[in-house]
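To fix ideas, we close by showing one paired sequence and structure record:
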Amino acid sequence: MGFRLSLGVCASCLITLVVAAKAAERTPWLIGGKAVPLSCLAALDDSDVKRHQRVDIAKCHGVPPDTVADGKTGFINREEHSYFYYSHLGPKDGSDLLFVETSGGGSGLFSEIIGIKRTGNILQYARNYAGGDRCNGGISSAKLANGQLSYDVSLTPSDLILMGDKNAKFRPYQDLAAGAMNCVADLHMRDETVMGVTLTERDLPATGGSGETYQACFNDFYRRAVIQGGAEMNVAQLQAFAKGFVRTCIVKTR
């Protein structure tokens, strides 16, 4: 699965600028009135190798910052076709939260919210709040207000159903689409609480397209929900949607 309610999904690397998120306010992280060097922050992503790395902001090499249309701060490595962009969300849980978008030059376009702990000039990765690759848990609309972290998580059909019914019996990928290009919904989060979900597609095809067992039925069930005004759902409605899919598409076809 691309997203888990434990908010532990993450794949990070250094980075093809096709921006995958729509974060609200984006500002550079300032310490002592100066922006933290980008090379420091790029070294503190959530990879297994760098997870416990400490960096001294006084010793980081300078990297000329780019600022793109929606205000992100970062840089592009045009030789490697990679990028690193971020916005500083603010302090929470004894750390500073960054909304980070990265790609290592491959097909993955990663977005995540991470906490960075600062002790004097020393920065250290603290934790991952949420993140993933495009439809597999990718993050958008991240903001921190009044101590509460809110953000949206992109969901595939498989993620959407399991978010509403964790006991649903099907095989992601074989029975229902679960790939990083298969976005169908945004899950709205506030800290670790699910607030609701938005069905983001308005015209799913009548057929499954890739041969997944229940995909055509899912598409029809999904389209009907949207047509009937059910694109915006609270948690109870999400659960009813998932259980309705199971009854309609799985139980009846066995």
